[in-house]
Every structure is written in structure tokens, then in C-alpha cells.
Design a protein that fits this description.
The chain is α/β, with parallel strands linked by helices. 33% of the residues lie in helices and 28% in strands. It contains 16 helices and 23 strands. The chain has an eight-stranded parallel β-barrel with strand order 4-5-6-9-10-11-12-13, surrounded by seven helices. Strands 14-17-18-23-20-21 form a six-stranded antiparallel beta sheet. Strand 15 and strand 16 (435-441) form a beta hairpin. Helix 15 (361-371) packs parallel to helix 16 (392-410). It is globular. It starts with a helix and ends with a strand.
Amino acid sequence: MINSIKNIVFIIVFFVMQFGYSQNKTPNLQKKGDKTQLIVNGKPFIILGGELGNSSATSMESMEPIWTKLKDMNLNTVLTPIYWELIEKEEGKFDFSLVDNLIVRARKENLKLVFLWFGSWKNSMSSHAPEWVKLNQKKFPRVKDDQNKSHEILTPFSENNVQADLNAFQKLMSHIKDFDKNEQTVIMIQVENEIGMLPTARDYNPLANEEFKKDVPAELLKYMQKNKENLVPEFLELWKKNGFKTSGNWEQVFGKGLSTDEIFMAWFFAKFTNKVAKAGKESYNIPMFVNAALNAPEKKPGQYPSAGPLPHLMDIWQAAATSVDFLSPDFYNPNFKHWNDLFIRQGNSLFIPEHKFDATAPFKGLYAIGHYEAIGFSPFSIESVADGKKETLGKIYNLINQLMPVIEANKGLHKIDGVLLDKENQLQIIKLGNYEFTFKHDYTLNWSDGAKQEIWPMTSAIIIEITPDEFYIAGSGIVVTFKSLKDKNLNAGILKVDQGNFENNVWKTFRHFNGDQTHQGRHVRIAVDDFEIQKVKLYSYE
């Protein structure tokens, strides 16, 4: 009898060790093929997010009318600020009640949270630092411009500044671990917000001036030499222009000018941020990232928030901020593909924490998750809508949510892609499995309702290869034709097209398409304002 009980206990312990650990392990990132998955509660997870306006989460009363909107848009994650000024109103005295209330309510709504740490910097400025920091400029110094004028930006060169931020962040992360580790409601952290130097390219505080005269840190020079063949071209060109020097101060290595000033600041912003992130991870090791306000190409350093985690400074940030998992773009810029292509260099994982909540956002989100296999997407000021049920975002998120297990099963295996179409970009070609797919905007059909309209809405789709001849295509406003890749002399035809959805991760067909719906077997179509998943099986014939 005793031996039987021991055997049962052993089996229980074995199964807990084998299968329970993955459920209790903290949210983490893992590689799958050549892409990155976010793992939450032991399963791959795509963030179908929305970022709250800056002040919406300052009280639970302010949040009360918002929760329903979030659920109506099919979000699974809310990005919300956590404000240093509210959790540490007096130095060393912490109040996490708002943090706890947000977590508890998110659990009730079956939502995950990404906390945005509004600590030392928010949109360059130090507007969210506590009063006791702002009122003691001697202890917590600010940046100075080249006219010796101070600005409301804490200088990254002060040890007092970094220690104050670090201490608060570490306490926050320790509290989140104690309060939330088992449930994993909080799945990622953004460290600071849109870090950047203004109105000059670098800080002229005496502490900064002293560092500027010193040699470039050996840590950075070593990184540059080790990764010389893989540095981003913008950075490599600057180093090359000055003779690939491997010793000397900042101006000796990189030359005199605003670009050198920006590189210098980027290194110290990144080192400051890394200290904060490292301390936070020592308390609770979950994924952490930083975000960037994108620079306008016609502006010079100092005219835009300079020295943040921007693509041309990616090597600086990756060398200095080793505790930061990835760099993310904030989009108020229409060049979506261009900037994402820059951000995925150096193996950087793509997550879009903030995008202007306009009519294009839902379609760009689907494209990011299809083409770039992004970790997630999040429009800004998500609560600004009147009726969440009417929003296109919710319809797109519904498609992605259904497909999430299929997407994650095929992630990193070159079996997923996406298209983004409008009047200027009406066509895109994708090769998957045994076929070449030509995606066109729905309005390219001469007989479609919108063909003669002057303004074409943005549309997008995701395509996933199930087998070399079978695919899921989901999205809105697209027409798809096919060619055989096995033999150019063969024709490609449709064996079967089914419209359906996933119920409990099982595909359910509710309509078989043929005849007019496939243009007598010539194409697959999802019209503008329709949001569908279609399962397509193709074949080749002579």
C-alpha cells in the first residue's frame, strides 16, 4: 500500500515537473526558425493590442467606461502606462494600488497587459518624474543645450538620476512578480517611452561634457570591430568616413558633427536604460523593449528626438542595452514598409506598440503579422472610438485570433506572408508552396463596386501554407490568381475554396465557394468591407 502511494506521488511529481513548469514559467521570448515567438502561460501568443491615451489609466474611475470598448474590438492585450510620479509620490514610499487594480480588472476582462514605464523619459521629456525629483535639480540634474539652458529632461549622465529610476522600476517589477507571476497578466514591459534628446543633438551638462572628452568606451569599439561586416550601413559609413579608427575620443573616432553628438548621446541613453532594465529583470525576468519616435529624413539631430532606439543607431543600442530584448517603432509616419524593413535588421524582433489609430491601422496590423511575422500590433489612443463593435480593427483582430495557432505553428518556417494594397500599390506577388500568388486590390476588378472610385481604401491579407497545395487566405479587399512554380508550362487551377472559421481551434466550413464566387475557377476574392478566412486547395494541369 505504501509503495503504491509512493508510486502515485512520484507520477504526480513527474508530471508537474514535466508539464506544469511550462505553464508556470514567466512570459518569455523564444526563437522559432528565423523568427521570435512570445510565450505566455506556456503557449505562443500574438499581441492583438491597443495602447491607452497617456492619462486614461491614471485612475480606475477614468478606466471604467473603456473596458467594454476594448473587448468589443477583440483585443487580447492592453498597453497602459505606469507612472513613476504616482507610484512613488514620496521618495522611498511606494503605492502599487493602481497597478494592482489594473491587473485585477484586466484578469476579469480576460485581457493581458503590457506596462509602459513612464519613468525618467516620456516623449523625450521628464514629465512623469515625481515632484521630489523635479524640485531637487541639484541632486537630479537636467540636460543643458549649447546655450547652457536647462530643459525638463533628466540627464542620463547623473548617477543619482539612474539610481532613482532604477530603484523605482526594480520595486515595481518585484511587486508585479509577487502579485502576478502565476497568472501572467503582465506579459511585457516597455522601459521608458520614446527616449530622445532635444533641442540640441547632445547634452551640454558639465557631466556630459566631461564624458564627451573621454575615449569611446572599449565595449563599443570591441562591438564595432567584432560586427564590422554586419553593422547597419548608416553607422558603418560614418565610421568608414573617418578611417575606421579603433581608439580615441568621440570626435576622433567618428569625426566632428551632429551625427557624432547623436551617437554619443545614444550610447549613454542606452546604458542608462540598460541599467534600469537589468535591475528590473533581476526582480522579474519578463520581456522588455524600448520604443522610438521615428525621425523625419529632412530633419537633423536635435530637430527630432535624437539618440533614441532608431534604426541608424541600432548598433549603439544593441551594444549598450544588452538587457533590452528588442527595439520598436512608433508609427505616425505613412512609410510603414520602409521603417519596418529598417527595424528588422540585426535580428531585431518586430513589435509595433504604437500606431496612429486611423483607417489604415487594422490593415497594417494584419500585414505586420503576416509579412513580418511580428510579435504584435497596437494602435494608440485605443479608447477614442465611440463604438468598438463597429471598428474595422475588431474584425481584423477576430481573423488573427482565429488563425493564431496556425500562424504560430508555421512561424519562422517561411510558410507565412502578407500583402498591403492601396491605389498606389495595387499588386503584390508571393511565392509559397508550389505556387506563385498574385494579389491585387479588389478595386482592380473593372466590375467591382469601387473600381471607379477616386479614393481606394487600404486592404490587406495574410496567407499561410498548410501543404504545398493548400493554404489559408484571410483579410479584406483582395483578389488572388495563381501560377504553377513546379512547371511554367502547367496551368494552376482551383480544386476547392471553402469559407469558414475556427471553433476551438478546429476549422469549420460553412460555405463552399464556386461559380461566380471564384469567377468560374479563375480567382479567390474577398471584397472590400468583407472580412473572411478562406481555405484554398490548388492543383496543376497541362
